[in-house]
Amino acid sequence: MVLHKILKILTLIIGVVALVMGIWLFASDNQSLVQPLMMLAYAVVAIVLVLVAAFVVKDLFSGNVKNTLISVGAFVLIVAIAYFISDGTATEMKNGEMLTANESQWIGAGLRTFYILAAIAVGAMIFSGIKKLIK
């Protein structure tokens, strides 16, 4: 409960700071004000990542490790399948730089991983809905 109150206060403080900086940015046409907002965004992302990692580790040791490892293994398998079905071709981008074959393959793998996971999520929702209708 104490952690919940601390997180609510921290969220409120970060929100107020972002609101003040956002109003300050929009009130003036100075582009140099974008940098502090970006730094605030980076700080918030870093805090969130640290908290997520801490809670994952905490729950990993207090929960069922076998199910966690099965889920992580399934995710790694999906990423590997997406990587191997992606083709890597060197491509020239609009600004004249070259996208290497390896970078192209990783981009394709990321997109295919997203599509596979989205299809699994939609399928699970449809299956759950049909299962509830049958009951």
What would the keywords be for this entry?
mainly alpha, extended, transmembrane, two-stranded antiparallel ribbon, transmembrane helix, membrane, 2 strands, 135 residues, single chain, 2 domains
Short description:
The chain crosses the membrane at residues 7-27, 39-57, 69-86, 106-130. With 135 residues, this protein is mainly α.
Which percent bin holds the helix content? over 70%
Major β-sheet profile: 2 strands, antiparallel
- Order of strands, widest sheet: 1-2
Helices, by number, come to 4
Strand content: under 5%
Q: Domains counted in the coordinates: how many? A: 2
Number of strands: 2
Derived from helix and strand composition plus strand pairing, the structural class reads mainly alpha
Low-pLDDT runs: none
Termini Cα gap: 38 Å
The radius of gyration is 22 Å
**Average pLDDT level:** 87
Order of helices and strands: HHHEEH
Based on Cα principal axes, name the global outline: extended
Model description:
Keywords: Membrane, Transmembrane, Transmembrane helix. The structure is a single chain. By secondary structure, the chain is an all-alpha fold. The chain folds into two domains: 63 residues; 72 residues, no CATH class. It is built from four helices and two strands, in the order H-H-H-E-E-H. A hairpin with a 5-residue loop joins strand 1 and strand 2. Helix 1 packs antiparallel against helix 2 and helix 3 packs across helix 4. The protein starts with a helix and ends with a helix.
Write the layout of secondary structure elements.
Elements (H helix, E strand, L loop, with lengths): L1 H26 L6 H29 L2 H21 L5 E2 L5 E2 L1 H34 L1
Antiparallel strand pairs: 1-2
Helix pairs in contact: 1-2, 3-4
